[in-house]
Design brief:
There is one protein chain. The chain is α+β, with helices and mostly antiparallel strands. 37% of the residues lie in helices and 18% in strands. The strands form five sheets. Strands 3, 4, 5, 6, 9, 14, 15, 16 and 17 form a nine-stranded mixed sheet that branches. It has a two-stranded antiparallel sheet with strand order 1-2. A two-stranded antiparallel sheet has the order 7-8. It has helices at 5-13, 48-59, 78-87, 102-105, 119-125, 155-160, 173-180, 205-215, 244-252, 270-275, 289-295, 333-343, 346-356, 363-367, 375-383, 393-408, 414-433; strands at 14-19, 23-28, 40-44, 68-72, 94-98, 109-110, 112-113, 138-139, 142-154, 182-183, 189-191, 221-223, 229-231, 281-285, 301-305, 317-327, 385-386. Helix 16 (393-408) packs antiparallel against helix 17 (414-433). The chain has 17 helices and 17 strands. The radius of gyration is 23 Å and the shape is globular. The protein folds into two domains: 5-140 and 321-383, Periplasmic binding protein-like II (D-Maltodextrin-Binding Protein, domain 2, 3-Layer(aba) Sandwich), CATH 3.40.190.10; 148-316 and 391-433, D-Maltodextrin-Binding Protein, domain 2. The chain starts with a helix and ends with a helix.
């Protein structure tokens, strides 16, 4: 097998090995005189304050210090800014972005060869959502942080409604809405069991609807035999994994004629309603727990995993995963790889997870278990976390929102709305891959 110059250099500098069969480490062969690696520039959408403190903490104990110039870019303009910087010859050596930014930037990245980071090692090391980085010739990134979608629930409202446990399955909301949604004779909703059915005032609506699609077995996007990513939402082409049932479920809670009617456009955003004690459940990210506590210290709430389908389907919840990817145009790829591998190594990630109060991307860490009452829940959510190759979160949010609006307004049936949304999605997916 022919080995490229890139592979030879990396193999000569780094050692990738497995500890307990699941952990990946990359170490630098210090010659006794080098105490700091060359500077690496990383651009990303990950919070700069958290990242810089993390690097500082590593350098306080590491034998070989990391020199990283990290630039945080707005998520909505990241791809455009990245392209412009590369055109000027001023691009970064690596990027740290969410998986929803991977597809539009893939042609500007270089995979980590499987001769350096074996595919078997990758799959054994990282949670399932990390599979999104797996390519035919190498991995497009190294998983760093996972923030899964979970369900927060108001214990006081559930107790008052006579419901001892939060919903495990989506079908459990039939009883929950009857017990906790309070409606006047004219249909005005003053207390609600669930916020679902609209994109204007349901926080994380894209991620919530995406979770419903993925639970039904629909991957939202799919990679064809030619490597092109296209929409999988057309119910006519994907009858076995039709998105129609998920659409029907999502929209029924905003329909006044439905027995489970619990939400409408007159309500504030769902997080505000939950904080005010008027909404029994809130679908938010694990990272939001501290914010919820801070904004209403008196709110009696708990957290659990996202409800699932009672029969059939796939266990899934949306996960906001960040990962390091190497930039093709960089002349510093080797050092960038070592820095990224060090930042994502188990010995340091455990401290970052404690700081951010998030679950691990590492199977070994989750397998070790946690006595923390919330991390133990977040760990379960991380194991079934999933995402899809997207043209960009703002674009898919707009398409998903228009699809929902078409159904709730009566303009289209769920089948028609999904079919038309799939066609629109294909257009922007194609544009994202032609950049």
């Amino acid at each position: 097998m022919k080995i490229s110059k890139f592979q030879l250099i990396i193999l000569g500098i780094f050692v990738v090995f497995i500890v307990a069969g699941v952990a990946v480490f990359a170490t630098y062969k210090n010659n006794g005189t080098l105490n700091q690696l060359p500077t690496v520039t990383i651009w990303g959408t990950f919070p700069k304050s958290v990242f810089d403190q993390y690097v500082s903490n590593i350098n306080s104990t590491a034998a070989v210090r990391l020199s990283v110039s990290y630039v945080q870019e707005p998520a909505d303009s990241f791809t455009q800014d990245f392209i412009a910087a590369l055109a000027r010859g001023q691009g970064p050596d690596a990027i740290l972005v969410g998986t929803d930014q991977l597809l539009p930037n893939e042609d500007k990245l270089t995979p980590i060869p499987y001769s350096v980071l074996p595919q078997r090692t990758f799959l054994d090391t990282y949670i399932q959502e990390g599979d999104i980085y797996v390519g035919p010739d190498g991995s497009w990134g190294i998983p760093f942080v996972i923030d899964p979608l979970v369900m927060y629930w108001n214990r006081e409202m559930f107790n008052a409604g006579g419901i001892a446990r939060p919903p495990v399955y989506w079908s459990d909301f039939d009883a929950a809405t009857k017990a906790m949604t309070v409606k006047s004779k004219d249909g005005t909703v003053s207390k609600s069991a669930i916020a679902m059915g609209d994109f204007s005032n349901v926080d994380n609506a894209r991620e919530l609807l995406g979770s419903l699609f993925m639970q039904s077995g629909n991957p939202i996007t799919a990679i064809g035999s030619d490597g092109t990513v296209s929409s999988a939402l057309d119910p006519g082409r994907n009858t076995a994994q039709s998105p129609v049932p998920a659409l029907q479920f999502f929209t029924k809670f905003i329909n006044p004629a439905d027995p489970d009617y619990s939400w409408n456009k007159s309500w504030p955003d769902s997080k505000t309603a939950f904080l005010a004690g008027n909404l029994a459940t809130y679908f938010g990210f694990a990272s939001e727990i501290s914010d919820i506590r801070a904004k209403n210290p008196n709110l009696d709430f708990d957290v659990t995993t996202l409800p699932q389908l009672k029969s059939g389907g796939v266990a899934a919840t949306y996960g906001r995963m960040y990962g390091f990817s190497l930039v093709k145009a960089s002349s510093n790829t080797n050092t960038a790889y070592q820095v990224a591998a060090t930042l994502a190594s188990p010995q340091y990630l455990s401290d970052l997870e404690k700081t951010m109060y998030l679950p691990s991307v590492l199977r070994s860490s989750i397998a070790a278990g946690s006595s923390d009452p919330y991390i133990s829940i977040f760990d379960k959510a991380a194991l079934v976390a999933s995402a899809w190759l997207d043209a960009g979160p703002s674009q898919s949010t707009q398409i998903f929102g228009s699809m929902i609006q078409a159904v709730t307004s009566g303009q289209k049936t769920p089948y028609q709305a999904a079919r038309d949304a799939s066609s629109q999605y294909d257009v922007i997916l194609q544009a994202a891959q032609n950049k």
